[in-house]
């Protein structure tokens, strides 16, 4: 397969996954917002959402103050935010368009349909209801796309590149969300009141609440949540699950063999698996957890770079 | 439904002057009568949406950037009875054979110039004549025209004539298939009681034609690796490229995916470099290789021409075909057919006056208000005068231009292009149509049954081009129950 095509598939998957995850975070925040009363708390919450879905720094450079409507616009349909839902979905579509001869027709059509509907969304008044509908549309588009990929694509090279992109993106996002919540916990550990609420939020951001609560009814202890989201083998959004699947995908790509060109990549993936396994989440304090998560996010960057180097991937297609 | 339909002075594909359908349209006419107005409208909507949803679009560029548009689809097909089609098919094979011999000749022996059939100037001054780059190069199968798109029109007598040859990168083949696909999806009823030439297997014919162009230095044992080279997703014909690559099962590559090393072409894959033997390129000559042509081309591949000349890679269509399909050379195609094949043209040209001939020049200057004047080097309707629709000032302007550079212009009588009913915005009205026929050549020559019928949907317009409001129609070759037009 062409390197450029492999690269587009990888980024298509990452962009779809990113859009879905970000829309979930924003959607949860729009609900939580209704119950918050303190302006200061609210501003802080929005700052965290910005850090999870984009970059608070970039946002503040441009707008200088936390404003709810501006943030919602920035995260959903803003053309200036590289990670806005609209941009992510556009990149995904452009990537799909550049690989139309490889991907299932239905996959292209579902992304194209989203794009066609987008014009209508942009013209709708910026009400809560419309925003939620838009977020839902992003999520269902992503899920439908995944359904098409799973049910129609041969488990060959194109499929594998799509999956690697998805798992890396997801693992990175999970680490990012946990990191932000740990930071919040650390700052406010002296009060020790809102713990329950924080970890509930983390689980909701990561679509892990239902699965978690079945394992740990009905408690909400930080170490359980963190252990679940980092190390749970069977939950498809945990860091471990994602990285195990990256490893599995690369092994499939290489037919189970390790060659000189893939040696470094395999080594790195093994190291990461080892690091996750060895991490003693239960006994780490917030400080340590944050540095663990920071370290893991760096690892994600390294794996992504190594993966690109191993398969000669080149610059992704970007919208002009 | 066609109660108020008026065929006027034009030849109509479907209707007689007396308001009855032509014989080969009778079944279709009856089936169509079964639709209610509501059904017609809904089906029309569904068909247009089908193209949009599938992203079968072309990109129109203007100062604010590109917009993706679909080509409007019209459901009234162009039906051609088989005997009439057989003649077109023979005519196309004959024409492409002669054009190919012409290209082989002018890049080698130049017999047609020696024989005084075509003036040397006309060829050597042609901007698309790349003798310096590829003169004397032998190409696989000695075939320069792997895929041609020949535009045909019908005159007021209903006789086919060739309007234009496209021997470089004819586009639109995907629409032939998609028009049929959408037609079958949305108007299945209309296919009852008709026996139509199928379009299945046409892509495998195309693939066979591609693969037959094995370059001399390809590995003899293995099947050659073919790719389709596209300028990328922003090209207006990108959908065409995707469709053909996908259907033929060959890689769709961009210039940046290819590299030439030691005069061998490779593509960059996740497993390293892989040798490429045949390139079906959809990039113009100028942009193909910055080393040999335009140095500013970012779409092409450095060194590709060297690989081509060494017989390490085949390039389809051949480089330098542009010298054979411009408006000045067009005039000589009937002479080519006589010269190379010793035959009379089966499908004639539109009558064309060459203005370097003093007698013709005088006639044209006197009758400019009756004629169409075209600049031989221009395309897309630029530097063109449609006599009957022009003001005296414009006519004088063109008289002046012609006298200044008579060899730069040709003149043609204004032809009453045939028309066919179109259904848009809830009503039927007559629109001018033409037909692009696709001719593919490898070990043998094959013509796709039918082709792309293009229709000028703006009432009274003669422009079928999709960027200017033209649409497409399905084209049916009717294998029985039809009757040749006398």
TrEMBL record, chain A:
Positions the record marks as coiled coil are 262-289
- Domain DUF403: residue ranges: 1-311
Keyword terms of this UniProt record:
Coiled coil
Q: Which InterPro entries match?
A: ATP-dep_Glu-Cys_Ligase-2, DUF403
Task: State the name under which the record lists this protein.
Answer: Uncharacterized conserved protein, Alpha-E superfamily
User: What is the originating organism of this protein?
Assistant: Halobacillus alkaliphilus
Lineage of origin: Bacteria, Bacillati, Bacillota, Bacilli, Bacillales
TrEMBL record, chain B:
Enumerate the Pfam families for this protein.
Answer: CP_ATPgrasp_2
Residue ranges of every copy of the Circularly permuted ATP-grasp type domain listed in the record = 77-456
Domain of life, per lineage: Bacteria
Q: SUPFAM superfamilies in the record, alphabetically?
A: Glutathione synthetase ATP-binding domain-like
UniProt cross-references to InterPro entries, sorted A to Z = ATP-dep_Glu-Cys_Ligase-2 (IPR051680), CP_ATPgrasp_2 (IPR025841), UCP005522 (IPR016450)
Region: Disordered; residue ranges are: 465-486
PANTHER family, alphabetized: BLR5612 PROTEIN, SLL1039 PROTEIN
Query: What name does UniProt use for this protein?
Result: Uncharacterized conserved protein, circularly permuted ATPgrasp superfamily
